[in-house]
From TrEMBL:
Residues of the NodB homology domain: 111-289
InterPro entries per record: Glyco_hydro/deAcase_b/a-brl, NODB_dom, Polysacc_deacetylase_ArnD
MF GO annotations: hydrolase activity, acting on carbon-nitrogen (but not peptide) bonds
PANTHER family: GLYCOSYL TRANSFERASE-RELATED (PTHR10587), SECRETED PROTEIN (PTHR10587:SF134)
Keyword Signal among record annotations: yes
Entry protein name: Polysaccharide/chitin/xylan deacetylase
Annotated region described as Disordered, given as residue ranges: 29-64
Alphabetical list of CDD domains matching this protein: CE4_NodB_like_6s_7s
Ranges of Low complexity composition bias in the record: 46-64
Signal peptide: 1-36
Keywords, comma-separated and alphabetical: Signal
Amino acid sequence: MKTTTRTRTAATAAGVLALLLAVGGCGSSGTGSSNAGQPPVPTGTAGDAPSAAPSSAAPSGPAAGGADAAAWAKWNLKPLPAAPAAPADKPVKLAKTGTVPVIDHIQTTDKVVFITIDDGAEKDPKFVQMLTDLKVPITMFLTKDIIKSDYGYFKPLQALGNSIQNHTVTHPVMSKLSADKQKSEICEDQSTLTQQYGTAPFLFRPPFGDGAHTPTLNQSVQQCGPRAIVLWKESMQIHDMQYQGAKTLQPGDIILAHFRGPGELKGETMTQMFGELLSRIQEQGFAVARLDDYVQAPS
């Protein structure tokens, strides 16, 4: 994972929470877009695939996802621009077999970014209402031992069109595990998420971004089913984002956030943090698009 800062539930296993807090969350590793040791990427499958042509289709609705201004005002927010229609030819095409690509952005000229939210510790019902109102798409990377106290919380979010992806069972530092243990972490989460949510994840995010470019992790991912490793370009803190490389958003950037509550957000709620994230995106004139609309999973 790669990472200016303005900157869950008691049922979570104590060891998992201790690791999360000790390392500072998934966005602390600073490994996001490094290419050192990166496995070769199959032609036409990486995030650096040729740019998709900008969509000429008229956006649907006055704000992101078609939400109206009143919905945004309810949350004391200014509406985002509407995302363009999903590209007919998706910029990232994932292969069924072979080495999986490591991506932290999508090559596109559309002025869009993609929000991903990790772990699943905070299960605030107001956040479900917020996304229902605003229709902002997200991608969820969920950890079994963190969400097992309430698998049902994430189903309304999934019903809004937000996909659920793989983020291991216990949220370990992957490079410290043997190949067999890496595979166990990924495969068990894959099986659980598929059973609970009815769809097999096709994306994987290693905790802390650790080991993303290593052959061992790549092989473990291949053996368990996901077809890409997803990192990020920016990570959301409490009030602002940490940038990697450019200090502004760029078209196609993937943003990392977390399901977190007041205990880890210095008293602020999940909805307040997410509102701050949307404000930072709105200030830079970007829309939020659905990652699945730009990444073609193997059929």
